[in-house]
Design brief:
The protein contains 7 helices and 10 strands. With 228 residues, it is of the alpha/beta class. Strands 6-7-8-3-9-10 form a 6-stranded mixed β-sheet, sandwiched between helices. A hairpin with a 2-residue loop joins strand 9 and strand 10. This is Cell division ATP-binding protein FtsE. It is found in: Cell membrane. Belongs to the ABC transporter superfamily.
């Protein structure tokens, strides 16, 4: 599903945030990405959906070579990638339903199909009854569930989550993890950058640790490995 071969990323200020990354993530895996602040975790996952372009090396996602992908084709790539952010990134002036539907409207899905898919997805994340509310009327956990619904409504093959529990209380964090687990059970690959030691150590999955832009640990059923 995702493969990197000797990938480097150096920013315009001279900082090298990825240094010789080589990794393979298979379809259906659930992978935590951990490491100290500033280690290169965000760069690592942004490279996967071409938010950042590698300076050197090759990246393929779902058979698409990101290194040679034209900028005009990036939206096509992202149809098969769902992205969940720490700060939700919802549109505040439209309803929950409209936020999720937007992901289908941009790919010109038929209206009847949009309604069916949006309501099914909101049901999956437990928010079908709040479809007509605005994001500002929801709790932080509910907003994150809307963000997850938006990321999966198009049935992507992979979901990339950047600190999805970072702004949430412990109980709400577990709710979000349960939803991600359900999505993963349905066959979607999950790649999740996180500082949440308790989650990583309790719900064990593959752990990739990054320090100084390099992969220093890659363990199946791993633990967090850092002091929180």
């Amino acid at each position: 599903m995702i493969e990197m071969q000797d990938v480097y990323k150096t920013y315009s200020n001279g900082v090298t945030a990825a240094s010789g990354l080589t990794v393979k993530i298979d379809q259906g895996e659930f992978v935590y990405v951990v490491g100290p602040s500033g280690a290169g975790k965000s760069t690592f996952i942004k490279l996967m959906y071409r938010e950042e372009k590698a300076t050197k090396g090759m990246i393929t996602v779902n058979g698409i070579n990101l290194s040679t992908l034209k900028n005009s084709k990036v939206p096509l790539l992202r149809r098969n990638i769902g992205v969940v952010f720490q700060d939700f990134k919802l549109l505040p002036n439209i309803t929950v339903y409209e936020n999720v539907a937007f992901a289908l409207e941009v790919i010109e899905e038929q209206p009847a199909a949009i309604k069916k898919k949006v309501m099914e997805t909101l049901d999956l994340v437990g928010l079908k009854h709040k479809a007509r509310m605005l994001p500002t009327e929801l709790s932080g956990g509910e907003q994150q569930r809307v963000a997850i619904a938006r990321s999966i409504v198009n049935s992507p093959k992979v979901v990339i989550a950047d600190e999805p529990t970072g702004n949430l209380d412990p109980d709400t964090s577990w709710e979000i993890m349960n939803i991600l687990a359900e999505i993963n059970l349905r066959g979607t690959t999950i790649v999740m950058a996180t500082h949440n030691k308790e989650v990583v150590n309790t719900i064990t999955h593959r752990v990739i640790a990054i320090e100084g832009g390099k992969i220093v640990r890659d363990v199946q059923k791993g633990d967090y490995g850092y002091e929180s």
